[in-house]
Task: inverse folding
């Protein structure tokens, strides 16, 4: 799949209109109207060794109008497509929940609702994304926002010039769609992505991004799509290395894996959201001994260990360094949070741990 | 209790030092060292009719060193106080989790830990806050951040001048402590506080804050302390009216109640976090009929109804308008989300609903 997001608003609208016209012409010529939709089940998700990204395979299924089992979802697909065409045309964005409410209604002379709950409209959006080869951001549907960024970067967004180095203690709240942002000035040697908001605040207060000339991104847990896309754009368009810091546990490592290779659920969007060149700076299980954090570990739960075993099977974590760390965790049955480094002092993260890792280039692939 | 947050860093440090000196002098004069700590149980939480805020009453308890049941928490209190003194002096901020890790250790020649889990250190922080009459932000302990703001306001923060009207689609990410922010220019007629991030993005995209000359704040659910404090400061220091928009359900109304009158858990901080003058702009249960949203409601759960009954008992919601709304909910057993307004069109919120409410001054007290 080619770089999806280079498409203009006009082109996205045309894709939607084209879909509508195809259906119309099928109706007019007496055919059973249908839409081709890529299959998203596990059987059609592959790890692309070349790009190092999780991707959808080639299998598709047809959704027909004249098919008792498919008529409703066919109708729903067209409703969502028509809705998206309208908001793309009007150039407004909305949340997937707002869309659900907007489209929900009872069909005339029936007791049938277009949608009964949001769980019905959400997958239809992905159907459209994959079927048309566009992303929901391009359909003007937004996901929740939660990331924050600071650094020596000036951007232009909706006519405003925003200097990420001059936002005080706050930082710039990363919106759900970052496609229209223009980078005016990017003076940074690398990206540092940190899972915890508290870690972001600590490093931000120490002006770590200034001292080490980097862009600091706080994801607040699993990064939102906007944040993942921003990482990808900065890395790709400005050729920057990026390092990810998470808790030393299966969930933290999974966050890293999603930033790097994409996720199963969003396999169709990996090209735009996954950044294979990112490296893992910490926390590792080896760090616990190395930095004397033994007293600050937490006992791993059954769930942690189960997840760790799953990580062992991921082809994109198939490196001896990762295998060693994951096995170490399984063997010691412990985990540790970023905050554990505070046992060594509150500035240990910014003044010792990170500088040492960066200096020695001690990263996991 | 007087306005806590007017205290300087120096004064906060002195309070901590004074506590230490008091203990020292008690030891030197052979007394049993003790600390007075206000009681925070329900029996000592009162609704102050004059200020319209939830507050702590006058009851205090003494915590002694020579008391088998209290020796450990006495030790913990001094550890936290000493930690806070250090970070206040060094002028660095940290999260309560980092503090826990920093202070956790095994006492020499024993198997006793200073703290076994964070659930032990968290209440000690509140003990100190109430005992010294300072807030955790002043002790340089930060809570999680999550709010976002946009509007015609220029602030100064850590030497940066930040224009909230020039942050593109992003907005300013509200930090956990907003005490040191200086308002350089505040050109706004009112504050509009909205519970949902999606609602914030929608209104932000429509430049609602520009059209109606207001400051737009997105809380992302129950507002973080930093966001509540920012609301209070803007309202108080710039004499602005503030309107809150939440879902039409017990949880949304509870969020409103917390912004307005404070919460039980933070009764000691109401003076600084609660803003009694805020008004409720919507969503109400009456709105459902008024705006034809009947098809977009959700069935209220048992939990919703139980909470609604609790709200009926709150003295700070003891207004006939609120009673009517809550009873209407209990009777119809329904609730509705802000997004339900999208059933009437995506711009219905920004172009019809809010303008009408503002025009007619249709607010709940």
Result:
């Amino acid at each position: 799949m080619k770089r999806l997001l280079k498409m203009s608003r006009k082109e996205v609208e045309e894709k939607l209109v084209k879909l509508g016209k195809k259906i119309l012409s099928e109706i007019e010529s007496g055919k059973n109207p249908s839409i081709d939709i890529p299959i998203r089940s596990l059987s059609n998700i592959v790890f692309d060794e070349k790009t190092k990204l999780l991707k959808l395979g080639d299998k598709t299924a047809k959704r027909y109008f004249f098919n008792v089992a498919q008529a409703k979802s066919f109708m729903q697909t067209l409703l969502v497509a028509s809705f998206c065409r309208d908001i793309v045309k009007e150039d407004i964005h909305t949340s997937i929940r707002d869309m659900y409410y907007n489209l929900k209604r009872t069909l005339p002379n029936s007791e049938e609702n277009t949608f009964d709950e949001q769980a019905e409209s959400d997958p239809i959006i992905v159907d459209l994304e994959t079927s048309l080869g566009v992303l929901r951001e391009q359909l003007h549907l937004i996901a929740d926002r939660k990331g924050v960024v600071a650094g020596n970067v000036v951007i232009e967004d909706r006519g405003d010039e925003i200097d990420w180095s001059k936002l005080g203690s706050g930082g710039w709240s990363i919106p759900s769609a970052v496609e229209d942002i223009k980078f005016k000035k990017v003076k940074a040697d690398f990206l540092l992505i940190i899972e915890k908001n508290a870690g972001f605040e600590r490093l931000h207060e120490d002006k770590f991004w200034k001292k080490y000339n980097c862009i600091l991104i706080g994801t607040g847990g699993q990064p939102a799509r906007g944040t993942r896309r921003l990482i990808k754009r900065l890395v790709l368009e400005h050729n920057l290395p990026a390092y990810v810091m998470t808790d030393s546990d299966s969930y933290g490592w999974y966050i890293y894996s999603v930033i790097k290779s994409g996720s199963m659920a969003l396999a169709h969007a990996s090209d735009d959201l996954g950044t294979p060149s990112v490296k893992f700076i910490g926390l590792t299980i080896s760090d616990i001994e190395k930095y004397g954090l033994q007293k600050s570990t937490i006992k791993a739960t059954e769930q942690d260990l189960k997840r760790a075993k799953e990580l062992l099977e991921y082809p994109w974590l198939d490196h001896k360094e990762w295998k060693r760390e994951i096995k170490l965790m399984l063997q010691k049955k412990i985990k540790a949070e970023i905050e554990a480094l505070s046992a060594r002092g509150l500035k240990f993260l910014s003044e010792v741990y990170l500088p040492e890792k960066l200096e020695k280039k001690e990263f996991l692939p």
About this structure: Chain A touches chain B through 59 residues (CB under 8 Å). Chain A has a mean pLDDT of 93. DSSP finds 13 helices and 17 strands in chain A. The longest strand of chain A covers residues 34-38.
